[in-house]
Design brief:
Order of helices and strands: EEEEEEEHHEHEHEHHHHHHEHEH
Number of strands: 12
Radius of gyration: 20 Å
Shape: globular
Strand order of the largest sheet: 4-5-6-8-7-9-10-11-12
CATH topology of the domain at 2-27 and 225-313: 434 Repressor (Amino-terminal Domain)
Number of helices: 12
Helix content: 25-40%
CATH architecture of the domain at 2-27 and 225-313: Orthogonal Bundle
Structural class: alpha/beta
Largest sheet: 9 strands, mixed
Length: about 400
């Protein structure tokens, strides 16, 4: 029997109860701007590959929009092409402050990219932080919005997001038309965007040691994906679609070490096909109320040391890198979606290493509202970094 998914090249072979599946990648973006050039391997990480002036956006009035394509690196050390969208305000000045904001991207398809969402009329994919970002632009700061999941939309590959974020900063400093060669830069993000931000901060000393970054503000960060999965313990969950998406994304990034499709039953493969190009709503709908056991033909991957190592390698609590930049971290102490103990462990390790870390607890009881409640304190902290004030610490 031949089952073909909705995505080009997405083919699953099943016969006599045996299922063999290959990774299901997203449909390539039809815009050739996003394609990697043939000489990509000869380019350096962060090198600008192309820029494009984009149409003005009503949600960011008076702002100039520039799409920048640059060379980055996959989790396997391979060259990839990545993009970031740079918003420059009317009051932009040469070498003015830049906020690299790693927006939440709960998606597996190219239409979920921030650079695409900005111009989408789909109400299900929006930049909901537009109000806060307009407040930033009104201060004269520019904003960079990287597509930090990479060209295959490897949702869950948090380390990759950190590398793309850093290469995005390299690129905006190299693009002459942006006039940001000596701009002070601060990184920020929440939840999935917070993962990319926190990983960028931890990787910077080794991955991009030449970059001077004024600080990183990361909120609601899932610091340990292993303990998150263990806490789920095969139970059904209304947001299980995000777990499914993370499995698909990790398989895309680590096809040899995380072959989750080979362990899926027909129901799981159908769900995989349904979300392969999906964004938040499609992903949540496909997994709502389900569990790992609903979609698994075999649980062998759970005990596979190579697969577990992939999850560990994308868990910041288990990474020994230490940021050299100041850190602002915020979360809800009662957040039910992320392991709080992992955040506390990372904070203690950073403090012991001498990091200027400020940890802020919101009064929110859950994950989403904590993002909003933490923004005022985060913006105040970021503003102080751009002023050059000494970084506070709660260590």
């Amino acid at each position: 029997m031949l089952i073909t998914g909705a995505v080009t090249g997405a083919t699953v072979l099943a016969s006599a109860g045996t299922v063999q599946a290959i990774p299901l990648y997203p449909t390539p973006d039809p815009d050739p701007f996003y394609a990697a050039p043939p000489d990509l391997a000869a380019r350096k990480p962060g090198e600008v590959l192309a820029t494009r002036a984009m149409p003005p956006l009503l949600i960011f009035p008076g702002t100039t929009v520039t799409l920048v394509k640059f060379r980055s690196t996959s989790s396997l050390g391979q060259p990839i092409a990545a993009t970031t969208t740079v918003l420059t305000p009317p009051a932009h000045r040469t070498d003015g402050p830049v906020l690299s904001y790693q927006h939440i991207i709960n998606g597996l398809g190219t239409r979920c990219a921030v650079s695409r969402v900005l111009y989408s009329g789909d109400p299900n994919v929006q930049i909901r932080e537009a109000i806060a970002l307009n407040a930033v632009l009104a201060r004269g700061w520019s904003v960079a919005l990287p597509d930090h999941l990479g060209p295959t939309f490897a949702y869950g590959a948090a380390r990759l997001g950190g590398q793309i974020t850093l290469d995005g900063v390299r690129a905006l400093r190299q693009a002459p038309d942006l006039r940001m060669a000596d701009s002070p830069v601060v990184l920020a993000g929440y939840s999935g965007g917070g993962m990319a931000t926190a990983w960028a901060a931890a990787l910077a000393p080794t991955y991009a040691p030449e970059l001077e970054i004024a600080g990183a503000a990361a909120g609601g960060v899932p610091m340990n994906m292993v303990t998150m999965l263990e806490a789920l313990n095969y139970r059904s969950h209304p947001a299980f679609g995000l777990v499914l998406a993370a499995g698909i994304g990790l398989e895309r990034e680590y096809p040899d070490r995380f072959p989750i499709s080979e362990s899926m039953n027909s129901r799981g493969l159908a769900a995989r096909a349904a979300v392969a190009d999906g964004c938040t709503n499609e992903i949540l709908a496909a997994g709502a109320g389900h569990s790992v056991r609903d979609f698994a033909a075999s649980m062998s991957l759970v005990a596979d040391p190579a697969a577990r190592a992939v999850v560990e390698e994308n868990s910041l609590e288990l990474f020994d890198g230490i940021p050299t930049m100041p850190i602002f971290e915020w979360h809800s102490p009662s957040d039910p979606l992320i392991p709080i103990a992992a955040i506390d462990n990372v904070n203690r390790r950073y403090c012991a290493a001498g990091v200027r870390l400020f940890s802020h607890h919101t009064f929110s009881p859950e994950h989403l509202s904590a993002a909003v409640l933490g923004i005022p304190a985060a913006l105040g902290w970021i503003d102080a970094r751009f002023r050059g004030d000494p970084a506070p610490s709660t260590c």
